[in-house]
Design a protein that fits this description.
Layout: E1 8-15, E2 19-24, E3 34-37, E4 40-48, E5 51-55, H1 58-63, E6 74-79, E7 98-107, E8 113-118, E9 132-135, E10 138-145, E11 149-154, H2 156-161, E12 172-177, H3 179-194
Antiparallel strand pairs: 1-2, 1-6, 2-5, 3-4, 3-6, 4-5, 7-8, 7-12, 8-11, 9-10, 9-12, 10-11
Length: 195
């Protein structure tokens, strides 16, 4: 479980067909610990000199933007939530629902930027204005939503402390709907079928 509050940048050291190695300044995790990389919950299989290696399966490569990463790329890194820690964002599972393309990324007043991205079919009904969404693992508030798009406003701190500040139209981002919205939608569907 994560909060969507990115703590550090990581840098891709190496990528193979089945593994990803990321250099990140996080306390040495135990083997088997979960760390979110661009919002994807990955399991630590080795840590050496600040480089953490994760096994990555074909489905994860295909469904997320991790498959497009190369050595030297920056990524968002968040260690898993510890019991009793402050929950500054929203509950994020690290289970990416879909990838989406950035439609536009425009300046707004006072150093803010507005990001509009595609809203994949499987997330329609789970994204609402003033609701939460994780974009590349970053907890954000939805400011607009249409049939096939959503928008978020990025504050200067988020722009400087996450990889979202470097996004441009056409880039792929990882999306995770708020788990509470997912469970609520499932309950409504289930109750509707039971009638």
């Amino acid at each position: 479980m994560f909060t969507g509050i990115v703590e550090v940048f990581g840098k891709i050291e190496k990528r193979t067909a089945a593994a990803l190695s990321v250099r990140a300044d996080v306390p040495k995790p135990k083997l088997g610990a979960s760390i979110a990389i661009n919002g994807c919950c990955l399991t630590v299989v080795e840590t050496r000199n600040g480089v953490h290696r994760f096994d990555v399966g074909p489905d994860t490569w295909a469904r997320t933007n991790l498959g497009a990463l190369k050595a030297g790329d920056r990524v968002n890194v968040e260690p898993s939530l510890k019991v009793g820690a402050e929950l500054g964002g929203h509950f994020v599972t690290g289970h990416v629902d879909a990838g989406a393309e950035v439609i536009f990324f425009r300046p707004w007043s006072e150093g803010f930027r507005r990001l509009r991205a595609e809203l994949p079919k499987n997330l329609r009904g789970l994204v609402a204005v003033k609701g939460s969404i994780a974009v590349d693992g970053v907890s954000l508030t939805v400011t607009a939503a249409g049939k096939d798009f959503f928008e978020v406003m990025l504050v200067p701190h988020t722009l400087s402390s996450t990889t979202l500040g470097g996004r441009k139209p056409g880039d792929r981002v990882n999306l995770e709907a708020d788990p509470l919205a997912r469970y609520a939608a499932n309950a409504v569907r289930t109750l509707g079928k039971a009638r």
